[in-house]
Each structure stands twice: as C-alpha cells, then as structure tokens.
C-alpha cells in the first residue's frame, strides 16, 4: 500500500487516540504518537503493537512544553498532518482545576498550531471537539446540525473546547497554509474488537459505559442512573453513543479531506465559499480551509435503554438504582451526522449490541479490583 504520509497523533495512548492510530495505519498512513501518560499508560503501546504487528513511532512528551514538543518536529520533519487528542476531559474535575484544563487544553493547542505552521511539511490539523459546544439545544435543533447555535459552557472543560475552536478558526484566517477540521464527538463508547485496547478510566469512572461494565464485573455494587424525571420518554437522559472504532475511522476521512484540498489560500478563495448564516466562524469558513463535522450515529438512546441494551447484548445482569440528577447534565442531545456523510463519506455503522459487547469483552481483560 502507498504510504499516505506521516501523521502526528497527540494523546496517542488515550482512548480515542489509540483507536485512531490503528485506523490510520490500516488506511496507509504512517504515524508518530506523543503522549505524557497523564491519563493513559505505556501498556497501551503494547496493545497497539499486538494489533498492527510493530512498534509505532512514539515520543513521551507533554504538548504544553514547547521546547520538548519542538524536538518531535525536529526529529520528524516530514509531518503532513496532526490529530490533536491530547487534552483533559473530565467535566467535574475541570471545575475544581480550571488552570490545569486551560494549560493542558489551550497551551498545548497553541504550541501545536505554531509548530505545525513553522516546522511541519504541511499544516493540516484535525481537532477533537465535542458536542458540549451546543449545550442543551432547543427541541427544534434535535437532531443537532453543525449550524445550531453554540452555547457558552458552564465548565472549563467545555469552554476549553469552544476556545480551541475559536483559536483554530482565527488561525486559519491568519495563516494561509493552515487547514483545520474540527470534529464534534458525541458519546464515544466500546473498545477495539480484539480487546487489546479500550477505555482505561482513572479511579471511579465518570462516564456511563465504563461504570456499567465495572458494575457488571462486580467491581462496583450498583450503577446510579442519574435522574428519571427528565422530559424524555422514559425520564432518563438521552445521548448519541458512537462506537469508538467508527469514530476513529472518521479521523481518517477528515485527514484524507484536508490532504486532498488545495493548500493555497488563493485557490480556496476562488471557490467563493459563503459562510452559513449566523456562522460563528464566517471568515474561517469563507477561507475554504475550515471544516466542522458532528460525529454521532444520528440516534438518541436513553440511559435506561443503554442499560437494558447492555444486559440484552451480553446476557450479564447488574444492579442499577434511580439516583438524583447529576449537576450539569444536559437532558437530551443527539447528532445530525448528515454533513459528515455527505462531505466525508463517513457513517457510524456498527450496531449498538456489538458495541456494548466490545466494551464488555474489554472489561474482562482488566484487573478485577
Ligand atoms: C459529557 C459531554 C461530552 C464530554 C464528556 C466528557 C455533553 C452533552 N456531553 O458527556 O461532550 O466529552 O462529558 O466526559 O455535555 N450517567 C449515569 N450514571 C453514571 C454515569 C453517567 O446515569 O454513573 C448518565 C449521565 O447522567 C448522562 C449519560 O449517562 O445522561 C452519559 O454520561 P457520560 O458518559 O458521563 O457522558 P456525558 O456527560 O454525556
């Protein structure tokens, strides 16, 4: 297979990063991963090796340390694109430690943009954004399209994603060689079908599926279903749960798109791109070098539907109780992923039962404590 070029993956040993490394290699890209193991371990590299059959290029680096990060670009001058996963992602923790979140999520991004502009062979960046930028959309925006209004997030985590989109879109306007694709993820779940890699939550899981699998494994006594009095059919919150491998594949498509686009600002301008009405990023959109996609299945599932779906798919029962609402939760949000389908040729295809089985298979490889 023809080598499609060297891609830098920040946060390469993280949950979505590690799955994306696999899909990039499967698609013919060469990768160099970086991570500081803040929320992952070097063992993930062994899991990746078991799947792809070789050690990937990897540097242990904190992307918020400019000098250390710069060395990666000196060592690998042929980078043609970057996917920026490296970030902290716990909403509650971000409220207690805002500076940690702004330093990790914003400074690392500033460093990446600067280094991609100055040192990389081509400045293409795919950014891990989140559906959190929409807050709680009004019913008329469900399923939510990319053109829905953005709402200021109450958490530093959410704000850091919005700031990052602002920084990237301003940078696209200022730097004619830079092309950016911001991918707004809904709720990624599941693990690689080999179960050599998956989600490794630190301590007590905050996210629903790791909590379900740990409870099913007997590590937790019961799952708290946070609220059954929401204005939804069964009263529990609704989310768009997307298989992490499907999500990883979307990154390949996003890179293919950026690498396939004309790099020169002039040619992009000649396309006479008109920004969507009320776009928060009109100048960036008009440059033809700024793209935003929702990555979800297009289908909302309630917490209770997911719990029952897990029991049905795996045959493993576990205890759950209805608990009070969790502060800061939005009631319901799911994606309109039709833009990604139309422009990237991507669609989340894996049935939810298979996804939940993969999460369970992964859980069974983890220590039972
Ligand atoms: C949120 C953000 C998402 C962000 C993620 C980071 C929104 C809509 N989503 O995901 O963008 O990337 O945080 O972690 O802002 N639940 C339980 N019991 C549990 C755990 C969760 O009932 O023990 C429920 C929650 O109330 C929620 C659903 O499960 O309704 C999903 O929760 P979670 O997996 O934590 O993800 P979000 O909060 O949706």
Describe this structure in words.
The longest helix has 22 residues, at 98-119. By secondary structure, the chain is of the alpha/beta class. The model has no long low-confidence stretch (mean pLDDT 95). Helix 7 (208-216) crosses helix 13 (352-363) and helix 11 crosses helix 13. The chain has helices spanning 15-26, 43-52, 66-75, 91-96, 98-119, 156-174, 208-216, 244-260, 265-270, 282-287, 303-314, 338-344, 352-363; strands at 6-10, 30-35, 57-60, 79-84, 124-130, 179-185, 187-189, 223-226, 238-239, 241-243, 290-295, 301-302, 320-323. 40% of the residues lie in helices and 16% in strands. Strands 3-2-1-4-5-6-11 form a seven-stranded parallel β-sheet, with helices on both faces. Strands 7-10 form a two-stranded parallel sheet. Bound molecules: uridine-diphosphate-N-acetylglucosamine (UD1). Uridine-diphosphate-N-acetylglucosamine is lined by residues 89-91, 130-132, 187, 206-208, 211, 223-226, 237, 239, 303, 326, 329-330, 333.
Write the layout of secondary structure elements.
Blueprint: E1 6-10, H1 15-26, E2 30-35, H2 43-52, E3 57-60, H3 66-75, E4 79-84, H4 91-96, H5 98-119, E5 124-130, H6 156-174, E6 179-185, E7 187-189, H7 208-216, E8 223-226, E9 238-239, E10 241-243, H8 244-260, H9 265-270, H10 282-287, E11 290-295, E12 301-302, H11 303-314, E13 320-323, H12 338-344, H13 352-363
Parallel strand pairs: 1-2, 1-4, 2-3, 4-5, 5-6, 6-11, 7-10, 8-13
Antiparallel strand pairs: 9-12
């Amino acid at each position: 297979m023809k080598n499609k070029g060297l891609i830098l993956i920040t946060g390469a040993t993280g949950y979505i990063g590690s799955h994306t490394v696999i899909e990039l290699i499967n698609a013919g890209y060469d990768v160099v991963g970086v991570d500081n193991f803040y929320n992952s371990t070097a063992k993930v590299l062994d899991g990746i090796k078991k799947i792809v059959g070789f050690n990937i290029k990897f540097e242990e680096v904190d992307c918020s340390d400019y000098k250390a990060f710069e060395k990666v670009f000196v060592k690998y001058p042929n980078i043609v694109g970057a996917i920026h996963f490296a970030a902290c992602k716990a909403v509650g923790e971000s409220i207690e430690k805002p500076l940690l979140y702004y330093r990790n999520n914003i400074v690392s991004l500033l460093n990446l943009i600067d280094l991609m502009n100055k040192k990389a062979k081509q400045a293409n960046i795919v950014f891990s954004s989140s559906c959190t930028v929409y807050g709680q959309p009004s019913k008329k925006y469900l399923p939510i399209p990319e053109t829905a209004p953005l709402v200021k997030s109450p958490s530093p985590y959410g704000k850091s994603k919005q700031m990052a989109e602002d920084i990237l879109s301003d940078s696209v306007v200022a730097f004619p060689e830079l092309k950016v694709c911001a991918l707004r993820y809904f709720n990624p779940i599941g693990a690689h079908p080999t179960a050599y890699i998956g989600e490794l939550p630190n301590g007590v899981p905050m996210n629903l599926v790791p909590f379900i699998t740990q409870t099913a494994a007997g590590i937790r006594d019961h799952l708290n279903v946070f609220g059954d009095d929401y204005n939804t059919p069964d009263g529990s919150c609704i989310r768009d749960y997307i298989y992490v491998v499907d999500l990883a594949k979307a990154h390949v498509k996003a890179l293919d798109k950026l690498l396939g686009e004309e790099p020169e600002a002039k040619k992009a301008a000649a396309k006479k791109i008109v920004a969507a009405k009320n776009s928060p990023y009109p100048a960036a959109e008009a440059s033809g070098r700024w793209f935003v996609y929702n990555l979800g299945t297009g289908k909302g599932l309630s917490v209770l539907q997911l719990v029952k779906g897990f029991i049905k798919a795996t045959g493993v029962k576990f205890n759950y109780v209805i608990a009070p609402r969790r502060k800061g939760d939005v009631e319901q949000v799911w994606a309109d992923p039709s833009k990604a389908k139309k422009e990237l040729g991507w669609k989340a295809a894996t049935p939810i039962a298979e996804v939940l089985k993969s999460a369970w298979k992964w859980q069974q490889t983890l220590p039972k404590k």
